[in-house]
Amino acid sequence: MGAPTVSRVVSVGLNPLGVAVDERTHRAFVLSSGVLSTATPGVARYSLTLFDALTGRVLRTIRFGPHQYIFAATIDESLGHLLLAVNSAVTPTDTPGGIGSLLVLDEASGAILRRIVVGPTIDDFEVDERAGHLFVATVGKAKSKAKAPPRLRVLSATTGALLRTFAVDDNGMDVDTRTGRVAVLEPNDVRILDASTGQERTLPVIGDEIAIDGRTGHILVDEINAGGGISLPNIQVIDEASGKNINLPLGRSSDYDGGQGLLVDERAGLVFTNYQDSYRHMNVINVVSTRDGHPVAQLGLDSDGNAAVSMDLDEQANRLYVADARPLPNQTTVVYGPTQVYVYDVLSGNLVRAVTASGVGPPIITVDAQDRRVFIANSGGNTITVLDMAHL
């Protein structure tokens, strides 16, 4: 396996949770927890690092106080805002579950513009830049000891005002910015919600992961562990407008466990998802058509089935970037070895290149197609490895 030219290594807070990039302003944002994921007990001390995506120069570091759990960061490019989901702690051991709020930061300066107090614990959130909506899923407790029922709140991205509330139990969601609808995965069904009209549709589909291909208007549901068993990965394709199930179940041919998210390439009409193959003891990426659910290819990674895997796309160049790291043997706790980066041609499924990158896993990969950079958050340490696409 070759060694790529590492453009630079950027020092950030301990245990970076990923990189968010605004390709228009060339700004990159890294949220770090301040404690290793294997450290127990440990009180998180979150920080946010802003750096120049082209040069790697750190522009600002924002440190947050204790008892604040910041579990997600999303960019609203249309407003130049960075959104952070924050939950306060409510127990002596610092378990998050108190008041949930959204912090709205100015991208350019890192200044906090406003805090939108939602109430109960935030479980998930998405941004619809075209419609100017924020979708915030909440669960758990608010100020009282009584458990608050799960809700999906629709907020104005400009003012933070509450526009609409849906009674849904969110297990994952995705937004179709072309229609303004959001597809929500519940424990026993899928709900399609229209943020503008309030109309709802319930579909009897059970799954573990959900995504939308806006170009085809199809909702994709991964049914790998639906019902609690281990079965063949089966991507159900549902027409968003009619609710009709387009494809048929594929049957069973091998044992898979632990699907890890759906990655959609709208340009190519493909969806990628990573699984642990229990029979072959390796990680496998399944490639499925978003048009009809037909399996297109299966990419076997040169790693055992316990590797930590992260994926991202460069849709313009038809490239899939995969980062994985294997646990080192004979360790009392889980310690990951060097990160491997695989580059695949999306259209042919061929492996273009495989290289070894610096850093301590598990890795979280982000592709910046505009600046031709690949960022790898080394969550076992405190660095971001930056690779130049010209050398991949």
Question: Would you mind describing this structure in some detail?
Answer:
There is one protein chain. By secondary structure, the chain is mostly beta strands. 0% of the residues lie in helices and 51% in strands. The strands form eight sheets. Strands 21, 22, 23, 24 and 25 form a five-stranded antiparallel beta sheet that branches. A four-stranded antiparallel beta sheet has the order 1-32-31-30, with no helix packed on it. A four-stranded antiparallel beta sheet has the order 2-3-4-5, with no helix packed on it. β30 (363-368) and β31 form a beta hairpin. The two termini are 12 Å apart. Residues 226-231 and 248-259 have low confidence and may be disordered.
Describe the SSE topology:
Blueprint: E1 6-11, E2 16-22, E3 27-32, E4 47-52, E5 58-63, E6 68-76, E7 81-89, E8 96-106, E9 112-119, E10 121-128, E11 133-139, E12 151-156, E13 162-166, E14 173-176, E15 181-185, E16 190-194, E17 200-203, E18 209-213, E19 218-222, E20 235-239, E21 256-257, E22 263-265, E23 270-277, E24 282-289, E25 295-300, E26 308-314, E27 319-325, E28 339-345, E29 351-357, E30 363-368, E31 373-378, E32 383-388
Antiparallel strand pairs: 1-32, 2-3, 3-4, 4-5, 6-7, 7-8, 8-9, 10-11, 11-12, 12-13, 14-15, 15-16, 16-17, 18-19, 19-20, 21-23, 22-23, 23-24, 24-25, 26-27, 27-28, 28-29, 30-31, 31-32
